[in-house]
Write a structure and sequence with these properties.
The structure is a homodimer of 460-residue chains. With 460 residues, chain A is mainly alpha-helical. Chain A is 66% helix and 6% strand. A three-stranded mixed beta sheet of chain A has the order 1-2-3. A three-stranded mixed beta sheet of chain A has the order 4-5-6. In chain A, a hairpin with a 5-residue loop joins strand 5 (232-236) and strand 6 (242-247).
């Protein structure tokens, strides 16, 4: 059974009518077999005052899973409405990393209430994870994993799994530690199943171990998941002691979030970290205005360049008409280069030491692209603009335009490929060094070249 | 033990010297404990003729895992050098989905050789998957999964797992089918471990089932993984019969690849699907030229608009200087809107039915942003350009510029947010309707508005 978005909308309508008629049994039947994220979608499409009612229709474990998938405002509103017992039930059912994610978004008084309700162990575990900085690997890990000692037999390992496995985030991979919790290796559940009951964990475990440190950037850890096809990764502290694990679902969320952040930065937006339709008007304005203001001001320098060549433009007015084409082509060429390099950096395909290779490649691409564009443009100018539209264009003017085009594309791709790498080397986010920033620089360069060639070839 | 990129470079140097001195035992020791993807990285940094030598140093299973991680050219070159027995060994060790991925990239004669070497079952399985269209879910699935009948006991299920589990892609999730292979539900390995040996599979299985169809787009399937936090998904044919599974590692690769494709399309590049440093010069030129040519030609229409208002520009030459600022601001505003909408579409946050909400939001954002920019620009023009730099700017000219700015931003964000949604509705890739395309349209609109206001307010 697959539920398309449209069917979910139909279910929302059904739920609304059941709830209006107080047919709670049918309402429950409608949603209880769906995936938690789909139930959450339905709940959030219903009138706000019905959300607590629907929530209480769900069995305990499912209710907690649905709670995780609701957006922050719905979660907060539900928590405020819960009795002490209801809140405790939800908190106890939650996986630790989900509980931490939720708490991180709550205002202080709600956090206090949640922590006071939780039992001492849960409270201590939550506080442990909360102490890690935002965007660190420690902040996305969980402590609900199974660790095994090397001298355990496979049979004893299974006993442990059966005893504690229900509440663990995962049992697909288990980490082997010594008595001081230093990480020694890992075993997969498959290895355990295919081994004999008397085999020792230490003998069958894998010890070639890629791990993450609590203070590693979450994006760096998430990328290791993709690179090594991991399902989980162990997280260690400075002394190589196992303190938690990260699972693939959280790594995927980080990858997607960090990519959205990159994409927004490349378009001169301050990232919002919320779905588009959930961000308010003023929030969106605030995320877009800063760069627009900065770029608007820097674009006026380009304008100043044009002003200083006013006389030349007045003398050969047709030069005006090709300014947009030169600036646009420069901007597009530059952002082609910068975007590919930025993406290459974020996929770990390019690093500082590749700067030479990248520049050499872009230079050669730029020359070929520039010449192709210039030749096509020359043909277009002479045939279409001059012969068909009778614009007053001399051969020299056409040459000025087309030679400028070659240099513009060259400068654009050179600037476009180097700025992101320099930004990365200086510790900045390379995505900021993208299209709008580069366009401004390239505009200025291409206009200066344009007017220089105009002066030279047209004796202005 | 974590291997940073720099340490891998040191290992490459070590390997080179060992190989030069024919110290093959030490060479083997250097790499045999690393992750396959890191071994592949090292091998590809070594001289090409040493790759077969290093490959043959590796134990069979590890060699196959490393083979998967090599790039296509290295794989092809190794295959051509393999004896019949060596090729068979590698093919037999490969997981099915990896074998298919490799074969998809090989030239026809190499494919023939591989398929003739493989045993009949493997050949049949590979051919089954190869028949699915590129970018379909069928093309990324594997048939190496465990299925269980509902009337099996947990104990018998474990017997089956122990018997066939070694060669399966995964045993973390197993699917339950009836005698005609119709999908009934699934059990996790955890559920099996926590159940009693006499429990029936049919009683403990989960039957609320999200599945993928063989012909679903791979990106749609990959996004379900993120949405539902799945590790595997069942793939069914038109009759809901289970034909394969997709695992999270392949879904993550699809997500990353499709995102890179989006990012490149938004920058007017034809996607290349290869790492930046692996794409040749002419390949890169071919991926960038088409859009640059198209946009260059369309930019000349903008130039024609400027030409047709030459007289006005000659009369009030200072109008020239603000053209770049208006066009850049329009372009940046437009791409802020289009990029957020395109990303929202690809994250399933926005669909055709949200068009009204999106437009209403962007209109209000545009008005506020436009007014803020216009006010700041007015201040800047009157204070900096006029008073400090003594440019000849009257109040009316400043008004023309700033009012145009408001309309430009408005038009830009309106065009920027609607074109991607329309593209998606018409079945095109919304990422194509991004910055460069929108910039061209917005340039033309903003210039027309500029000159209209100039005519009106300056009586030109």
């Amino acid at each position: 059974m697959t539920y398309q978005k449209e069917s979910l909308d139909e279910l929302v309508e059904q739920m609304e009518s059941y709830l209006n008629e107080k047919k709670y049994v049918q309402a429950r039947e409608t949603i209880v077999d769906l995936e938690p994220v789909d139930i959450a979608f339905i709940m959030e499409a219903l009138p706000e005052d019905t959300i607590p009612i629907v929530f209480r229709l769900l069995p305990k474990e499912l209710a907690a899973e649905v709670f995780v998938e609701l957006d922050t405002d719905s979660q907060e509103s539900l928590i405020r409405g819960f009795s002490k017992a209801e809140l405790k039930e939800v908190i106890d059912e939650l996986y630790l990393d989900d509980a931490v994610d939720i708490i991180e978004e709550m205002p202080a008084n709600v956090v206090k209430r949640i922590l006071s309700i939780a039992d001492a162990d849960t409270r201590r575990d939550i506080n442990n994870i909360l102490q890690y900085p935002e965007d660190s690997t420690g902040s996305i890990m969980t402590t609900e994993y199974i660790d095994l000692k090397a001298n355990l037999t496979v049979g004893d390992a299974f006993k442990k799994i059966r005893r504690v496995g229900q509440d663990m985030e995962t049992i697909n991979v288990m980490y082997v530690v010594d008595k001081d919790r230093h990480l020694l290796g890992f075993v997969t559940i498959r290895q355990l199943l295919l081994a004999d009951e008397e085999d020792l964990i230490g003998d069958i475990m894998d010890d070639g171990l890629i791990s993450a440190s609590t203070m590693d950037d979450q994006e760096e850890t998430a990328r290791k998941f993709k690179k090594y096809d991991f399902l989980t990764m162990p997280v260690v502290d400075k002394e190589n002691r196992l303190v938690g694990i990260v699972t693939i679902d959280d790594a995927v969320d980080v990858l997607v979030e960090e990519t959205t952040e990159d994409i927004e930065r490349m378009a001169a937006i301050s990232p919002s970290y919320k779905p588009y339709l959930n961000t308010g008007i003023m929030e969106t304005v605030k995320s877009r205005i800063p760069w627009l203001l900065l770029l608007m001001v820097s674009a006026t320098f380009t304008g100043q360049i044009i002003s200083s060549f006013e006389d030349q433009l007045a003398a050969v007015t047709v030069l005006n008409a090709y300014i947009p084409m030169l600036m646009d082509t420069g901007g597009n060429s530059g952002s082609q280069a910068s975007v590919t390099v930025i993406r290459g950096i974020s996929l770990d395909e390019i690093s500082m030491k590749d700067l030479g290779k990248v520049i050499w490649k872009e230079m050669r691409v730029a020359v070929i692209v520039g010449i192709i564009l210039a030749v096509c443009n020359f043909a277009k100018i002479m045939i279409v603009d001059k012969m068909i539209f009778h614009n007053p264009i001399t051969l020299q003017v056409a040459l000025v335009i087309c030679i400028t085009l070659v240099f513009t594309v060259f400068a654009a791709k050179l600037v476009g490929c180097t700025l992101p790498i320099f930004a990365k080397g200086l510790g900045f986010d390379p995505a900021v060094m993208a299209s709008p920033f580069i366009t401004t620089i390239v505009d200025a360069i291409s206009l200066l070249i344009y007017f220089q060639f105009a002066k030279m070839l047209l004796s202005l």
